[in-house]
Amino acid sequence: MEKEKMKETTSRRGFLKKAAVAAGAAGAATIGFPQVSRAQTTVLKMQGSWGAKDVFNEFAEDYIKRVNEMAGGRLKIDYLVGGSVVHPFQVQDAVHGGQLDGAHTVTVYWYGKHKAASLFGTGPVFGFNANEGLGWIHNGGGRELFNELLTDIMKLNIVSFFAMPMPTQPLGWFKKPVRSMADLKGLKYRTVGLAADLMQAMGLAVAQLPGGEIVPAMERGVIDAFEFNNPTSDRRFGAQDVAKNYMLGSYHQATEYFEIMFNKAKFTALPKEQQAILQYGAEAVSSANEWKGMDYYSKDLQELITKDKVNVLRTPKSVFDAQIKAWDGLIEVLGKDPFMKKVMDSQKAWVKRVVYYGMLNAADYRVAYEHHFAKLPL
Fold first, then answer.
1. pLDDT at position 6, please?
2. Long-range contact list for 86-93, CB < 8 A, 24+ apart?
3. Average pLDDT over every residue of 36-65
4. Comparing 22-36, 237-251, 296-310, which segment has the lowest mean pLDDT?
5. What is the arithmetic mean of pLDDT over 296-315?
6. Domain spans of the chain?
């Protein structure tokens, strides 16, 4: 018994001695190796495409917060609101040219350079929602196609990540309720991206404006109606002060996501762990933004109804039908471009498999909702 105890004690001492030697060696190695990437702080200058009051600005700040906290002082993003350095629609040029290190925006804001940009956010409605669209980007070939657009086709010095599956965007704000497709004909309407082409094909006159310019344009009579994105953004910039009819539901922009872009040369010069923080920070904030949006958007919709006395209505079926037909015409035109056809074919292959499973398996949430609450006005 004594011998066994002595053996155990000797064994433990030997283990502790080896551990101490190993720890000392590791410490010496740490002191001897010049940890340059950890000793210096890299600061990236990023501008958003959003005004200070817009909830999208808060969503951008959520990303900044995650990156800065995960980086532990070795990497820091300084964030500027839209217009601080360049116009909200010009952030891509500034990031490509190096005037900005990064930007928080949406692809539809630069679709004028290549219409394929809108396919990575606000493209044709094939049946997938924004979360399923992000699935396509991450696992269905979308990311590779987007990189092909940026690098091979447009020759841009940019690397981008996507975040936040946005809910369907409302048809928007009108001075009179929209009872049928006929009520839209001839209206001067604000939207952006391929939605502009869609609405023009439906007989509307379209103005493409950033969020901060919408209400002044409505007040001056430059536009008759508009959409932006969601009840919170709309309420914060005062949509309810210039129109009282809010039409929910539309095919014009059924999906969208933020594009978080960086100057590629600046990004690739960063240590690998910092590149990973920028990339995976976008994935982390994607969920955080979505959950916050659920809370904010639903609360603001109720306040638009109860406090601001807004007439909230569901977009009539005749408008949805007209939009689907207009999309068919646009898809045919867009498909003449080989790259755009390749992107849409990739999306349709994803939708056919993924959405088939999702819709076939999904519970009928509307029945359950109406069982416990009021019948929905649909």
1. 46
2. 86/47, 87/210, 88/48, 88/49, 88/50, 88/210, 88/211, 88/212, 89/49, 89/210, 91/47, 91/48, 91/49, 91/261, 92/156, 92/158, 92/261
3. 90
4. 22-36
5. 98
6. 36-165+256-294
> Mean pLDDT across the stretch 103-112?
95
C-beta separation of 300 from 292 below 8 A: no
The secondary structure of the chain in percent helix, strand, coil, rounded to multiples of 5, reads: 55, 15, 30
Average pLDDT of 52-73?
Answer: 97
Check if the beta carbon of residue 103 is closer than 8 Å to that of residue 91: yes
| The domain over range 36-165+256-294 is classified in CATH as 3.40.190.170 | yes
- Give 69's Cβ-side CA count (13 Å radius): 9
Tokens linked to 17: 């001695």
Sign of CA dihedral 225, 230, 234, 237: negative
> Counting beta carbons within 10 angstroms of the beta carbon of residue 185, is it exposed (0 to 12), middle (13 to 18) or buried (19 or more)?
exposed
Sheet holding 172-174, edge to edge: 205-207, 188-190, 225-226, 172-174, 245-248, 311-314
